[in-house]
């Protein structure tokens, strides 16, 4: 699924702004006008950062970021069934306030009839109250009426009479999916590449980096298919068990080394005064984790070193290379056959700040081409750039000019979402002029045009 629109309220320099997004999005504009604040609003929504007091616009008491998702796959439609609009879109708001903290809430198409609202189910748990609404035929004729019976009756009535019921789309009063805390990643994975980033961070196998995700998948596939690897893991578990006092089934280990027995007895003797017993127990190591954390990536460009000893341009290119490899691996993982309730989305969101940094013009074009190919592979790419190389006439709907109008108005977003050209010939003529004079791309970055 993809984010179609993002609404931002009272976040940093943004008092109130809305962005319409495509599979790839280009945020451009002058320095200190709020481009990075839009990127950070994405990160706040996805749970990558937590708001602090200075994140509230001009000392306001609350803020929110609201995302509307479209093109949900079969799994997403099951996970977020309660919140699907008639066009199968999903709108979720994340709010942060001084009084109530952080909460996700979803928009629901709620029936206009108050007796069909979930929040009113408790009003109809008596025989006297339910006789006045059409739910009576959906509950048992005798016995106590529980709130759950009413909820089930409401659901069944809506299914049977969907076309006859009128609805209004409203923001739910309660928490999203009925949970105070939403699991990180439920809307998809987020990969944030800031303007200043060490490639060693992305090549580390010890954190949630791009490389770590690829490498973990390789190890997982390897462990499932390689018999020798699994035998080695089993031997390691058995070896560790021989060192412990008890076996996995709880029985005494008769083959335990005498050296360990003697060590425990000597220590017990020293601790007699405290009336304690000492057990030395060893936990089997996680072989997958051991292989992951002890992995180092070397780069050989004629001189073999770690990535930190290479130029920033090569480091930046390597990060984009990792992103492409990750996208390819994710594309092969997309399967809608395994459908389970409340499963995290398989979508990926790449938020990249100044991708042109440290790259010469030709390398910038190659990087942009890679990112364009990445967008759409169940992935969405949001770029913040100062380079005219990343502007393409064919992507004019993806260009968003970010401008801070005044301290009072805050940051605003300007973009065109309608068709500019009547036919392809008209666009091609404009494209020729654009190609003859490449400096025209810099007009998008100008403060004023005369």
Question: What is the topological layout?
Answer:
Blueprint: E1 2-11, E2 14-20, E3 24-28, H1 35-45, E4 62-70, H2 74-79, E5 90-97, E6 101-111, H3 127-130, H4 147-160, E7 167-171, E8 189-193, H5 199-202, H6 210-225, H7 227-243, H8 258-270, H9 287-293, E9 298-300, E10 304-306, H10 312-333, E11 348-353, H11 361-374, E12 379-384, E13 399-406, E14 410-415, H12 424-436
Q: How would you characterize the overall build of this protein?
A:
The longest helix is centred in the C-terminal third of the chain and has 22 residues, at 312-333. This protein has 12 helices and 14 strands. The model has no long low-confidence stretch (mean pLDDT 86). The radius of gyration is 29 Å and the shape is globular. Helices cover 31% and strands 20% of the residues. The protein is of the alpha/beta class and 450 residues long. A 6-stranded antiparallel β-sheet has the order 2-1-4-5-6-7, covered by helices on one side. A 6-stranded mixed β-sheet has the order 8-11-12-3-13-14, sandwiched between helices. A two-stranded antiparallel ribbon has the order 9-10.
């Amino acid at each position: 699924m993809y984010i179609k629109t993002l609404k931002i309220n009272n976040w940093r320099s943004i008092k109130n702004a809305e962005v319409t997004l495509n599979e790839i999005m280009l945020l451009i504009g002058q320095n200190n006008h709020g481009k990075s604040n839009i990127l950070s609003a994405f990160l706040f929504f996805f749970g990558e950062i937590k708001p602090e007091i200075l994140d509230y616009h001009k000392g306001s008491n609350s803020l929110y970021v609201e995302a509307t998702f479209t093109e949900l796959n079969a799994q997403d439609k099951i996970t977020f069934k309660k919140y699907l609009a008639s066009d199968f879109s999903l709108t979720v708001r994340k709010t942060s306030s001084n009084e109530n903290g952080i909460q996700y809430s979803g928009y629901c198409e709620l029936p206009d009839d108050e007796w069909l609202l979930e929040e009113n189910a408790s009003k109809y748990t008596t025989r006297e109250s339910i006789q006045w609404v059409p739910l009576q035929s959906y509950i048992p004729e005798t016995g106590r009426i529980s709130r759950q019976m009413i909820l089930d009756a409401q659901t069944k009535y809506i299914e049977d009479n969907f076309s006859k019921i009128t609805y209004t789309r409203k923001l739910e009063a309660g928490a999203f999916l009925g949970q105070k805390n939403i699991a990180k990643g439920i809307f998809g994975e987020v990969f944030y590449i800031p303007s200043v980033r060490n490639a060693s961070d992305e090549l580390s196998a010890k954190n949630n980096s791009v490389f770590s995700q690829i490498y973990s998948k390789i190890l997982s596939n390897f462990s499932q298919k390689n018999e020798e690897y699994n035998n080695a893991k089993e031997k390691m578990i058995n070896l560790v068990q021989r060192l412990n006092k008890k076996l996995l089934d709880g029985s005494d280990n008769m083959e335990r080394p005498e050296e360990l027995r003697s060590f425990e007895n000597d220590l017990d003797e020293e601790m007699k005064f405290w009336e304690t017993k000492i057990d030395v127990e060893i936990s089997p190591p996680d072989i997958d984790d051991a292989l992951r954390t002890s992995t180092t990536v070397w780069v050989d460009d004629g001189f073999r070193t770690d990535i930190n000893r290479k130029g920033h341009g090569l480091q930046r290119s390597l990060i984009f290379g990792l992103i492409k490899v990750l996208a390819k691996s994710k594309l092969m993982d997309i399967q809608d056959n395994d459908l389970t309730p409340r499963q995290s989305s398989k979508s990926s969101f790449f938020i990249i700040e100044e991708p042109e940094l440290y790259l010469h013009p030709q390398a910038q074009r190659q990087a942009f081409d890679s990112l364009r190919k990445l967008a759409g592979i169940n992935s969405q790419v949001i770029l913040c750039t100062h380079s005219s190389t990343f502007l393409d006439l064919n992507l004019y709907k993806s260009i968003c000019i970010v401008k801070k109008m005044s301290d009072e108005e805050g940051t605003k977003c300007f973009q065109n979402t309608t068709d500019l050209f009547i036919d392809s010939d008209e666009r091609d003529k404009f494209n020729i002029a654009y190609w003859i004079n490449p400096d025209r791309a810099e007009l998008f970055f100008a403060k004023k045009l005369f």
